[in-house]
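On clarity, I found the account of how folds are encoded harder to follow than it need be. What matters is that the chain and its backbone geometry are given together, residue for residue. For the editor and my fellow referees, an illustration may be useful. For illustration, here is how one protein appears when written out as sequence plus structure tokens:

___
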Amino acid sequence: MDLELSARIARKAAGLSVRATAAELASEIRDALDQDEWESALRFLIQLSDNLVGEDLHLVTSLVTTPADAGDQRFNAAIAGLVEWRLLQRDLPVPEWAQAIGPLSEQWWMDDFGVGTVAVVEATPEPLRRRNVFVDHIVFASV
């Protein structure tokens, strides 16, 4: 049985979330980047956003344990920004590890749509924008 699946089954049995945590998804991102699977790495960021939106209010903070290095500072900044944005939307405290991750030295536009445009800058959630990560918030809209 897959180790990640075993961990989720154990969490469910303990009454905890079965959704992937920020730490687990950071690991998945690192693995995807190691295999040059850029699109997969981006999908894991979207999954993190969906998990933080979709989890029960009393369990959502269990998803934001300190993640390992995602293998790319851009993704580390994006994870921290997503966690901060989604937790603030739910009036929950932002973990210290997320607060500690500052801005990238250069801007990162997560996709090619609207690179450098004012519209995308304005549509980027503030916690991401503050970390120099730019993407229209609609990318993270849960469906």
